[in-house]
Each structure stands twice: as C-alpha cells, then as structure tokens.
Amino acid sequence: MKSKFKNLISSINKEKLYLISKILMTTIVVIVYFLLLFNHGLSFNERKISATPLVLCIIILLWIKNPLNEMWNKWIARLGFLITPFVCYLLIEFFYGKFILYMKPICILFNLIIYALILFLLYVICNRTKIAALMLCWITFIFGFVSYNVYEFRGFSIVAFDFTSINTAASVSGEYQFTFRQMDYCILLAFIGFSVFLCKLHSYKGLVLKKRVIALVLCMISIGSFVKITYFTDYLEKKGVHVRMFCPTNSYRLIGSALTVVLSGKVLIIKDPAGYALNKVETVTAPYLQEQKQTFSKNTTTTEPNLIVIMNEAYSDLKSIADFKVNQDYMPFYRSLSENTIKGRAYVSVYGGNTANSEFEFMTGNTLAFFPQRVAPLQMYVNDISPSINYDLKQQGFSKTLAMHPYHPGGWNRNAAYPLLGFDQFISENDFENPELVRKYISDQEDFNRIIEEYENSKKTSDDPYYMFNVTMQNHGKYTYNYNNLPLDIKITDKELSDNSKYGTTEVERYLTLIKKTDDAFKNLVNYFKQVDEPTVIVMFGDHQPALKKFQDALIKRNKNDSTQITYQVPFIVWANYDIEEEQVEKTSLNYLSAKVFDVMNLKKTAYQNYLLDLSKDIPAITANGYWGADGKFYHLNDKSSPYYKKILEYKYVQYNGFFDRKNRVEDFFFLPDD
After folding, report:
1. Where is the Sulfatase N-terminal domain (predicted)?
2. CA gap 426, 436 in Å, rounded
3. Same domain (yes/no): 115, 263
4. Of 605, 617, 612, which Cα lies nearest the Cα of 655?
5. Helix (H) / strand (E) containing 537
6. When you count CB atoms within 10 A of the terminal residue's CB, does the N or C end of the chain come out lower?
C-alpha cells in the first residue's frame, strides 16, 4: 500500500514537473519571439515573418502528447541523434550569413565529421543519445553566438589559439558587449525547436560497460585518424582548403566554423627548425655578447632624445611602382624633407592588410620569414614576455612606454599582447572624446595632435625622454565608398589610367587624397617639434601598400626596371630636430629598422640589434616572401644555392631561440644587461 502511494505521489510530482517545464519553455519561446519582433522596431521583415510559424510549431510540439509507439520512438530517436551534427552545422553557419550549399563538398564533409566526432565523444561520456545530442546543440549555439560577438568586438573570430589564452580572454571579457541580432534570435529559436523535438522522444538505456569501452576505443581511434589527416598531412591543402589566419572570419564563411577552428590549431604546433641546436645559437651570439660587454664598459652618459614612432596605416607612394600624372603632389612634405633626415624604401611581408605583422617586425627585430604562412605572431604567439625595443627603451630611462592605436583595443589581440611586449599604457579609440573623423576613422591630424598632447603631459611630470609607438587608422581600406567628409582633392590626370571600370581610378583618388591628409598632418607634427628644445626623433613608415590591384598592375606594366616585390615596399622616414647624418636608403626591411633608429639616436643596443645591423650588410632586406643579398639578387627563403643560405639559417636559429625556445633563450643577447 505504501509503495503504491509513493508511486502515485512520484507520478503526480513528475506530471507537475513536466507541466512546469512546458510552461517555462513556452514562456522562454514567447519571450525570445517578442525580443525578435521588437528588435529594430515592430516592423516586419522576412526573418520575423519566417520565425512566426517556427514559434507556433515549437509551442504545439511542447503541448501535444507523444503519440508514437516504442518502435517508432526508438527509430526516430536514433534518427534525431544521427542528424544532430547536420542540424548543428547548418544552424551555426547562419551566424555568419553563409548558407551551407555555397561551400565546397569537402568542407561540408569535414565539418560534419567534426560535429559527429564531438557527438560520439559526448555519447561515450554520458551514455545517453538524447543528452549527447542536446549537449552538442547547446555547445554549438553558445560557441557560434560568442564567436560572432568576439568578431564584432575585436575584428576576428575565435580560433584555436584563443583556447590557450583563457586567462587573457577572461581578463578582457568585461570589455565585450554581447548583443543579439535578429538572425541570432532566429537561430536560437531553431535550436530550441530541435531540442524540444529531441526531448519529446522517449529515452533508452545506454551501452553496457563492455560495449561502452569498445565505443570509447573506437572514438579515440576515429579522433586520432582525423587529427592525423588534418594536422599531419597536406590532404586539405591540396584540395585548396586552408585557414586565412590574417582574417579567420573569412574562413568561417568559406570553409565553415568548426573546420576553421580545427585547422587554425595547426599553426600552434611549432617544431624546432631542422638542424636547430642551442650550441649553434651560442656560436652566433658569443662574439656579440663579448662586444656588448666591451662597449658598455666604455659607454658614457648621454641625453637620450625623445622618440616618436608612427606606423601609418596603408602609407605608401604608388609612384614608387611607376610614375603617373596627378593634379597635385600627394606627399610634398615627405619629399621635401632632406636635412637631418634618413629616408628610403622598406620592404614588408604583407600586402593590403595584416598591419600587426609589420609592427611586430619593427618592435622585435624578428622577420615573418621564419613563421608559418598566414599567421600573425602578435595575435597568436605573444603569450609571454617577448623581447622588444620597448624593454630596451624602458631600461634606458624613458618616461614610460606608450602605445596608441585609435581603433578597437582588441584588434589583433593588442590589448593582451602589448603589455607582454613591454608597453606600460595603451591608448585606443576609447580614450578619444569627439575626435575628428575622416570617413569613419579617427584622422591622422587628430592622432598626431594626441601625440603632442601626451608629450606635453609627460613633460609636466618628468624630464625623462618621451616615447610613443603609434599605429594610425585614417588610411584603412577599403576605398570604395564616398564620404561627405572626404572631398577628392587628388585627381588622376593620366589619360591612360582614367578608365574607372578598368583601373578603379576613383578608389585610387580617394586613397591618394587620404595620403595627402597624412602628409599635411605629418608636416604639422614636424613643425611642432622643430620648435621643441629637447632632441627628438620622429620615425614614420607604412605597414603595407593598399589593395588597389588593378591600378598597381597597370603601373607594374609601365615599370621598365626591376619590379620584384614592388607592391611590398613602403616609404619610411627618420627625422630629427637636431643634427644627424642624412642618408637615402635604397632597400631595407622593418626587422632592421628599429636597430637602425637606435644606432642613429646613439642608444644602447642589444647584442641582437648589433647582430641585425651586421646581418643587414649581407642581407639588406628580408620578408616572408624572400630576401635580397648584398649582390642585389632576390632569393627565395629555401634556396640552398644562395651564397647567403648559411646566414639565413643562423638568423632562423637565433630568432627561434629568442621567441619560441624560451627555456633555453640566451637572455643577455635579446635584452639589455642590467646596469
């Protein structure tokens, strides 16, 4: 009698619990639906209209009883389990607006395999098909929603290396603002609908222990085989499937979210370069360390100049490719500077974007030549203290190491990487009030005014030399759209290049107008520091050329000289308000430029910087695309017939030791010794 009563109470409680859960789920669905309806006003569009029948179906499904017998329940439950990977794959791709049918079949297949393997693993862990399927659904939704919001915040979506820096992500998570778009509400409703469908089906017991162990072994074998194919073969590369690490969000759209995250992990596997050994590094570093000891023992105290470094977004001189006619010069002030000036051409590793790689090369003296293709070291590998000029300047008494970039602080992971590169403070767009905009970006004039403001504030509290590293934003591509705040002052008057449909002439005019604004702002900055009594050095260089390929290709055809890597060259200038030896540099690269600046300023240099200056005599310029020898010839990085190949290997080993082999790093070679 007691047991019957207990069973009755238990069934009543279950019914109440089931009723409460239905009411709760109905309430959630209605709330989500109303949030969707009132998103951007009450006006209807295709997303709001298409969500209406979905909501009705979910509510009906919630409240009707399951009419299926045991056999049908079992088979439909199995079907629901099997289609879960496809449902998750289909729905997550809508976060980025790319429909599944536009992807290559090989990408679809590998994405489905990833979801299936995760589902298999979840099933082995929880031993219930329904629970495993529900877990996969909500892991997928949460990941898709978070990843898209991360993209909105910092400019690129989640990739594998983000999982290696959870602490960093947690430290900046307060800066993230998670918002729902109409599409997000629709995706959420779809996941709720599929989850309700799964929950309405009856559950069945899982595998017995023996079968579960077998399933676990099969799961591990399957995952291992998948990892081997994706990570340790070039199968997908041969199929044209790879991750664009410079812009992983594009890969999300092209090859799928899950496959992008998985493949992005390949670049985290850093192996010792072939032939690498610590004793080889020490053989290279030893004479420079000895020279450094002798130099420092003789060093006399001098007054360090202020140092302002400006890496100017997309700053280049298209006439360096070939001459063309314009109504007025777009960089007259730059061309006019000669006294106390060093300027010339620097070669960079990137074209049309990927700014962070250029700043990384300048700050560290490292070259992209020895990193995996399509990576951004600043974004991916700076997860511990890394040698840079910022530590060297700090040790030599500069007031503070100050970085500025008038855009999102999370771009290229700067807000996490900069402190590890020795910056004390980072000024971003969040620190500007009502700034002047050109197009939609903070202008170079506004940016340079802030340099002056920070300099003046610094001198109010300290007589120590001032230092700022500044990455501008004004000239950022694309150059497609008209803006009322950017009248086109520069016009192309070259008849051969006037066809806009053929050469994109209007975009070029817009770009050159921006460069003229940069030139004007730079003139104002230089004129200010001409009046400053303290010795000051201003360095400015471009990070890359703009992506104006039609026009650049037309100029290359005009070029009768050597056009090797001509779209990978940018102007640089080192100007001082005191007497320095003038120089016109035909060819250098950004990994050498900071050492050159230290030399000009008579600052203490690390042994690594002295090594780089010596190396530049044999290899004047090196980028991810190759290098020039002192003989004037261009060589590919793996050209073993090159007379400089031994030098290249030495540089590779030394750089690897300083950046990756931290346990065995020759510290005194990369950092200044303590006084």
Report:
1. 305-602
2. 20
3. yes
4. 612
5. strand 536-542
6. N
Number of neighbouring beta carbons within 10 Å of residue 349: 22
Those residues with Cβ within 8 angstroms of residue 617's Cβ, 6 or more apart along the chain or in another chain: 630
Query: CB 298: neighbour CB atoms within 10 A?
Result: 6
Same domain, residue pair 201 and 288: no
* CB 539 within 8 Å of CB 572: yes
Residue 569 · residue 348 · CB < 8 Å: yes
- Do 596 and 353 meet the contact criterion of CB atoms below 8 Å apart? no
Enter the tokens of residue 362: 């300048």
Starting at the edge strand that comes first in sequence, how are the strands of the sheet with 634-635 ordered? 621-623, 626-628, 634-635
Q: Is the bond preceding 478 in cis, omega lying within 30 degrees of 0?
A: yes
Give the burial string for 485-509 (b: 16+ CB within 10 Å, else e): ebeeebbbeeeebeeeeebbbbbbb
The full length of the chain comes to 675
Pairing relationship of beta strands 401-405 and 467-471 according to DSSP bridges: parallel
The 10 Å CB-count burial string (b at 16+, else e) for 33-49 is: beebbebeeeeeeeebe
**Domain count of the fold of the chain:** 2
Residue whose structure tokens are 């962070």: 356
Among 241, 268, 295, give the residue marking a domain's end: 268
- In this structure, the number of other CB atoms found within 10 A of the CB of residue 590 comes to 31
486 and 343 fall within a common domain: yes
**Coil vs helix vs strand at 398:** coil
Helices (H) and strands (E) in the chain, counts: 25, 13
Cβ pair 349, 357 in contact under 8 A: yes
Q: Which helix (H) or strand (E) holds 343?
A: strand 341-347
pLDDT, tens digit, 9 for 90 and up, residues 621-655: 999 999 999 999 999 999 999 999 999 999 999 99
CA distances from 558 to 320, 352, 413, 490 (A): 11, 21, 40, 21
Please say which residue of 216, 238, 268 terminates a domain.
268
CA–CA dist 479, 482 (Å, integer): 8
| Reported pTM | 0.77
Q: Residue 238 domain-assigned?
A: yes
pLDDT tens by residue, 365-395: 999 999 987 788 998 899 899 999 999 999 9
pLDDT < 70 regions, the chain: 1-12, 40-43, 98-101, 153-156, 164-177, 245-247, 297-302, 675
The residue segments making up the domain with residue 490 are 278-670
In 3-state terms, what secondary structure has residue 69? coil
Token representation of residue 283: 């053989």
Half-sphere exposure of 52 (CA within 13 A, CB side): 7
- Which of 501, 560, 507, 491 is closest to 321 using CA atoms? 560
Please report, for residues 32, 151, 179, 190, the alpha-carbon distance to residue 183 in angstroms, rounded to integers and kept in the order given: 12, 16, 11, 11
The pLDDT of residue 301 is 47
**DSSP string covering 595-643:** HHHHHHHT----HHHHHHHHHHHH-SEEETTEEE-TTS-EE-TT-TTST
Largest CA distance in the chain: 106
DSSP conformational letter for 428: E
Which is it for the CA torsion 442, 445, 448, 450, positive or negative? negative
